[in-house]
Structure formats: structure tokens, C-alpha cells
Amino acid sequence: xxxxxxxxxxxxxxxxxxxxxxxxxxxxxxxxxxxxxxxxxxxxxxxxxxxxxxxxxxxxxxxxxxxxxxxxxxxxxxxxxxxxxxxxxxxxxxxxxxxxxxxxxxxxxxxxxxxxxxxxxxxxxxxxxxxxxxxxxxxxxxxxxxxxxxxxxxxxxxxxxxxxxxxxxxxxxxxxxxxxxxxxxxxxxxxxxxxxxxxxxxxxxxxxxxxxxxxxxxxxxxxxxxxxxxxxxxxxxxxxxxxxxxxxxxxxxxxxxxxxxxxxxxxxxxxxxxxxxxxxxxxxxxxxxxxxxxxxxxxxxxxxxxxxxxxxxxxxxxxxxxxxxxxxxxxxxxxxxxxxxxxx
Length: 344
Description:
The chain is α+β, with helices and mostly antiparallel strands. It has helices spanning 61-84, 123-128, 135-154, 206-209, 221-237, 241-252, 261-287, 290-303, 319-322, 326-341; strands at residues 16-21, 32-38, 44-50, 93-100, 110-117, 121-122, 157-158, 167-170, 174-177, 184-185. Helix 3 packs antiparallel against helix 5, helix 3 (135-154) packs antiparallel against helix 10 (326-341) and helix 5 packs antiparallel against helix 8 (290-303). The longest helix is centred in the C-terminal third of the chain and has 27 residues, at 261-287.
């Protein structure tokens, strides 16, 4: 594919493509090639190039190519909208455009690309796979992600694909949300609007796994709040919340996924209580403080409640305020203070 043979080419704005990055090393979407690039000033950045590979396994490759192109154009539009809105905790582009690959014939020789600031690591590298997590740094990263989602939600964008590879860490201990390739927007321009959950199904809330479809756009924010809580759970327990909840529920009801979400909910609530008890034990073992362990468990309990109507602030009835991410950026900041006060 043209996107896989861009080494040593230079973009129209002067970025030299000098190193290819493996999928395991960097985030950037499921259907793109990844590279390191540098400019005349010596700045190193990250380029993702649109890959048409999946189009040629389609029964109609030309239609598939048009669809992939539309997905790219939408992502580019959303990214530049975020740039105009100055969303500080969202990874925004340095440049986007087309580059001609001389090794291929038209029309596939024109490759769309987007260039971003190069991150130092993602969440999996920094925390989930780390043997000795710095919990203050971890909850600072979670605070930044909550801030980034608050910014996106204010802009009318539901990310829908928060997962470890899409949480990037940069110098000076700053974390940002990356990869807006699967977002759904309030204006209905997203090519994924018809999908119940366009992101990685491993990280979908339990109601999505049960085939539930949200009734309004604003309900899609529920997946984002769930995903952040699930990241906290995964970093401590070593496995995502949805797989854990599914497994525990299946022990109670072997046919749990053959019934409606409403009928399955009582079983999920029972399973959730069991998981939270284990989660507290693990939090305490790792952090060695009862107050902090309880605070972390309560945050996850709110963010990942199996009953989506109860997800978010327990005492707030209005949906916009109930799931406002500012509440959780504040809670992440509070956990950092608790850790610092107790010298942990």
C-alpha cells in the first residue's frame, strides 16, 4: 500500500519522513501507517497516513476507498475544529495534507496524512505495564483526561474510544486525549452516527455489550465517563471492567447475554458489588491507605455504574450536570492531594 512506503519522502510543508513506527509503539487509529518525521528546525513529530488496505478485502473496493476517505476528512475537520477551540488536553494537528508516493500509480499514489506532536508514551506503557506505578502521576494523568473530555463534551463531541493507547503522555507531566477518528458529534456529521458504539468493543460499557442503543446524543457521553473509570480499574486490577463484569455476571446467570439489558441489570448490579469489594482490597494493597482506597473505589463506582441512568454524580438528577466531567477532574485532583498529604 502507498501509505506503507513513505520513508525518505518529504511533505509539501517540509517534514521529512525518516522512521516507520510499528503499531505496537504508538496510537493513531486502526487503519493507518505511522511514522516519525522531522522539520528543518530538528523538531520530531508523529505522522499517520491513511491506509487503504482494508478496502481491498471489501466486495466493492472503490466504495470502501470512498468511505475511508470520508472518515479521514471528517477526522481532519474535527481535529481542526478542536484546534480552533483551543482544546488544551486534546492532541491537535500540526499539519494535514496529501503527499504523492512516486512508487505507486494514480489514483492511489496520493496519500492523506496528519502530523501531530510526538508523545513520550501512552497509558499502557507508562502505567498499565509498569511494575511500580507512581500513583500521584497516574491520577494527574486521569485528571488531564477528564479535563480533555470536559473540553470535548463542551464542544459537542463524544470521543467514544477512550482506551490506554489513546491516552498519551508528554514532557512536563502532561497527558492528552488522542485519536479522534471514532468520535460522534452533536451536529450529526460523523460517519459513525449509526453505530451504537464505534470504538473498541473491549472498552464498551456493559449496556452496549447487551445490545442497548442510547436514545439521545448526550447519552453517548456516558460511554466516555465509563471508559475513564474503566481505565482506573484496569490499571489497578490488570483487566478491563467490562470483561470482569461480564465474567462475574456469567457465573451468576449463564444466559445473561441472551436477555434484555433491563432483565440482566439486577445480575450486573450483584456482580458489580462483588467486583468493587475485590477492587477495594487491591487498591488498599497497592496504595496502603484506607481513605484513598475508598475514594478511588467510590470514583469508579460512580463512573462505571452498570445502570447507565445512575452513572455519574449520585445526588444529581439533571443529566448534563450528573455526568459533567469537571466533577471527576476535581476528584482526581483531590486524590493527588490525599496522596501528597499522606506522603504516598
